[in-house]
Write a structure and sequence with these properties.
The chain has helices at about 1-5, 25-40, 60-65, 70-75, 85-95, 145-150, 160-175, 180-190, 190-200; strands at about 10-15, 50-55, 105-110, 115-120, 130, 150-155, 205-210. The chain is an alpha/beta fold and about 210 residues long. A hairpin with a 4-residue loop joins strand 3 (about 105-110) and strand 4. The chain is globular, with a radius of gyration of 17 Å. This is Panthothenate kinase.
Length: about 210
């Protein structure tokens, strides 16, 4: 894939899927494996791949509270409209169109429940960028504009029941819910609403993967 893209261009892969599909784990493992293989083949230390979670593009809680309907915005956090899609599109544009430039991406701090700017380094030498998030293949602008710039789009498919269990467990472990009942209600409620948007409004993808 790097050869087909050209030595002066980055390979940018968008990995989408519903909440709990395993896309974050996939991107993290793939980036680590690519870097290990690169170091072994070239007998030198150094990385060429990085994974970037879409979570860093969440609007802050303060921004959600300033929206026309703050109650809905806060309740639906995780829906496409609660992300800064324009900023996401802007980063993808920079990654693709200015490949020799070192960049930084935001991350998400679960302790403070808000994104943190400029915490993920993307050196100019990094040739493979794995971007993962629910809406990497969404067919609405500007998400679709960002998707159109990527080298490939992958979709991680998983049965709804498995995704619900994973998301409910994640909510419990992160402490954002009080008990298993609330975790399950959230996983099958607002999270499932977001999942339906991902499934029903997905662009055609180059690869469909199953991680169970």
């Amino acid at each position: 894939m790097m050869e087909s893209a050209g030595k002066d261009k980055r390979v940018v892969i968008g990995i989408s899927g519903v909440p709990g599909s395993g896309k974050s784990t996939l991107a993290r493992i793939l980036a680590a494996r690519v870097n290990t293989m690169w170091e072994a083949q070239n007998q030198m230390a150094g990385s060429i791949a990085v994974d970037i979670p879409m979570d860093g593009f969440h609007y802050t809680r303060a921004h959600l509270a300033s929206m026309p309907d703050p109650t809905t915005a806060i309740h639906r956090r995780g829906a496409a409209f609660t992300f800064d899609a324009d900023a996401f599109h802007g980063l993808i544009q920079q990654l693709v169109r200015v490949p020799a430039q070192s960049l930084k991406a935001p991350s998400f701090d679960h302790a403070v429940k808000d994104p943190v700017e400029n915490t993920i380094d993307i050196p100019a030498s990094f040739r493979i960028v794995l971007v993962e998030g629910n809406y990497c293949a969404l067919n609405r602008r500007p998400w679709s504009d960002a998707a159109g710039l990527m080298t490939e789009l992958w979709y991680v498919d998983v049965p709804a029941g498995i995704a619900h269990k994973r998301v409910a467990r994640r909510h419990l472990e992160s402490g954002i819910v009080a008990d298993e009942k609330e975790a399950w209600e959230r996983a099958t409620g607002t999270d499932e609403m977001n999942a339906r948007d991902v499934r029903d409004n997905r662009l055609p993808c180059d690869e469909i993967l199953s991680l169970i």
